[in-house]
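In practice, a research group might receive sequence data for several interacting partners and want a quick structural hypothesis before committing to experiments. The following worked case mirrors that situation: the sequences arrive first, and a predicted assembly follows.
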Amino acid sequence: MKPAPFSIHIPDTIDEAVACLAEHGEEARVIAGGQSLMAMLNMRLAEPSILVDVSRLADLKKLEIGPDGLTVGAATTQAEVFHHPDLATHMPLVREALTHVGHIQTRNRGTVCGSLCHADPSAEMPLLLATLGGTVTLQSSSGTRTLSASEFQTGLLETAKQQGELCISAHFPSLPSSARWGFREIARRDGDFAIVAMACIADKGTVRLGVGGVSDAPTVEEWSDLSTADIPDALNRLAWKMGGTDDIHASARYRRELVRRIGQKLIEETLS
Amino acid sequence: MKVLQHGQKHSVEFTLNGEEVEGFAEPRMLLSDFLRHEIGATGTHVGCEHGVCGACTVMMDGKAVRSCLTLAHQAEGREIRTIEGLETPDHEFNDLQQAFHENFALQCGYCTPGMLMTLSELASTGKRYTEAEVRDALSGNICRCTGYKEIVDAAMAVLGDKGQVAAE
Ligand SMILES: Cc1cc2nc3c(=O)[nH]c(=O)nc-3n(C[C@@H](O)[C@H](O)[C@H](O)COP(=O)(O)OP(=O)(O)OC[C@H]3O[C@@H](n4cnc5c(N)ncnc54)[C@H](O)[C@@H]3O)c2cc1C
Ligand code: FES
Ligand code: FES
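A structural hypothesis for the assembly, expressed as tokens:
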């Protein structure tokens, strides 16, 4: 349980970081909070020869929370976001979801952007990025681009981020004041990755439901004029559309059943 | 840009429990191994080495972190606190340690350093915690012996409504 040898490069600026990624290509791997990557290195599931440590890069320490939403830099930890005094006012849904992301100790180092880049299908932050319709900004030696959640999230532990690109920030838009929201997840133990996680937003006759943990990437479905009587059928169709796969934590069938049952409760409590 | 080459040992310096320490570590060395093998501070335990059990929890700049998911070089210039630093200046147990002692909050003791370092972050805020909050905070620390009740009791004796917050 010790990592294979690697060198550590500690860039002082974003430009240095992307130059380093450009120069070393496949050999180099970004490390932010290390809360997913270090475990993979310890288990030798990853053996990069260079770690580009951006965890203390001052230019990536951005954290802006206001009426427009949350903008979070790649070196800002989940705990820093969670403890921001304005989070509850402007981004209560993000606040609720963050309580489910690992534990105190992992949130103290893990970053929001690292979670988006890692792209675990059950992870809460990718689910919220998709449900809220957020964006991710990537920078490489040839420039900067901003992708929507659906462009960025391409699958299981997979994103549209190309080799040589550094994620510099992510933006989660806030909800209009008329919107109602809810969040629920089922995990074996507190702080474990969710078996199924769901976020719901209801506003002006539409209901949007984001589901994590069933498909390879978060799935978002929106209904307008959904009556209470229609909910079971709508959720059943969504569950079959996502399909899901069996793994050691749960069968696909169980995951679909959670979508039907927990989804029903979540939509009802969001609308009520 | 600082570069630490693989296969070579590089100097690492940080404050450990208030004292400056220096050692040498390859880039890949974990903070947990650095503390135990390089510094000889073996109070920090290592269980799973992939972030799940919490035995290796230490405080870094006042926050509880997993030392098995932190590289020794990432501690450079930081303030690290471990179980060895909890005792009072007179070498007595601090409030949390005393409460663990009085509430039978350990059996084999393997998880104890991690439990105490996680709870030390809560104690350092000076706030009062509910039992639900304490249980949530301890969700990242696994104990195979106690069944948690005694640990929660001990934590509540210090951090709960009637508790006395440990002096920082
Ligand atoms: C016990 C435990 C429980 C957990 N439970 C949960 C949970 O319930 N929900 C959850 O969502 N997560 C959970 N996690 C994982 C979470 O803690 C991580 O923080 C997160 O998945 C990754 O963020 P990081 O900053 O630690 O990234 P790292 O581990 O540093 O990196 C993860 C991946 O993203 C890449 N990367 C990171 N930052 C960038 C960047 N800026 N640009 C380009 N690539 C980048 C890395 O190269 C790597 O491939 C858990 C972890 C542990 C140890
Ligand atoms: S040894 Fe670090 S969490 Fe288990
Ligand atoms: S006392 Fe033995 S593991 Fe907790």
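Before designing any experiment, note the following. The longest helix of chain A spans residues 252-271. DSSP finds eleven helices and 14 strands in chain A.
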